[in-house]
């Protein structure tokens, strides 16, 4: 864990304004250091005395450009990034990425009616691998879809607490918070054909 001061041109909000908007308007903003996690930082190449290649594994909220800035300061010089490449984000690696050229070609084909952008998309559940899943009945799903909390009682009620992703009929319905037997929807996904009608029980 390290303390890192975000760069002036960051998306952090200051009194409702983005720091980068204030910086572009010529204002000097004071950003407070925050704790970020650096799991690994490896020097992989040094082509000359002024250029080095690093590979890092870091936690959410880390500004890699600020990391280079701070390394330069520690070395008594200036540090900045010439090229930045993200090779993994959560469960997604380079193998899951679509090159920009292929994406543009897919957009062109979709615009002409030949194929769909959906062909290149992974299921939403792919990004939820680290969140427990909870299956509910269609009646409970209908209530959750309307933003209403659901009480889960009885012998089969789940004993876990925290964030869960809710499914009905094997398909994703919502992200919800579960605590003390109450399931509160936080983000409902607008997928058709998942829930019973409001009059169904």
From TrEMBL:
Residues 65-128 form the tRNA pseudouridylate synthase B C-terminal domain. Its EC number is 5.4.99.25. This is tRNA pseudouridine(55) synthase. GO terms for molecular function: RNA binding; tRNA pseudouridine(55) synthase activity. It catalyses: uridine(55) in tRNA = pseudouridine(55) in tRNA. One of its GO terms (biological process) is tRNA modification. The keyword tRNA processing applies. Coiled coil: none annotated. InterPro entries: PsdUridine_synth_cat_dom_sf, PsdUridine_synth_N, tRNA_psdUridine_synth_TruB, TruB_C. Pfam families: TruB_C_2, TruB_N. Belongs to the pseudouridine synthase TruB family. Type 1 subfamily. The keyword Electron transport does not apply. Keywords: Isomerase, tRNA processing. Residues 2-64 form the Pseudouridine synthase II N-terminal domain. The gene is truB_2.
């Amino acid at each position: 864990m390290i303390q890192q001061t975000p760069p002036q041109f960051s998306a952090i909000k200051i009194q409702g304004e983005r720091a980068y908007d204030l910086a572009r308007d010529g204002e000097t903003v004071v950003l407070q250091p925050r704790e970020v996690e650096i799991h690994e930082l490896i020097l992989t190449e040094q082509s000359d005395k002024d250029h080095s290649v690093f590979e890092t594994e870091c936690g959410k909220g880390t500004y890699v450009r600020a990391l280079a800035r701070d390394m330069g300061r520690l070395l008594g010089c200036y540090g900045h990034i010439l090229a930045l490449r993200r090779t993994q984000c959560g469960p997604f690696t380079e193998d899951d990425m679509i090159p920009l050229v292929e994406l543009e070609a897919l957009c062109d084909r979709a615009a002409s009616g030949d194929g769909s952008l959906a062909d290149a998309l992974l299921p939403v559940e792919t990004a939820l691998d680290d969140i427990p899943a909870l299956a509910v009945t269609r009646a409970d799903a209908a209530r959750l879809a309307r933003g209403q909390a659901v009480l889960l009682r009885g012998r089969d009620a789940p004993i876990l607490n925290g964030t869960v992703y809710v499914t009905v009929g094997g398909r994703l319905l919502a992200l919800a918070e579960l605590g003390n037997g109450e399931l509160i929807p936080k983000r409902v996904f607008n997928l058709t054909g998942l829930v019973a009608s409001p009059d169904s029980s």
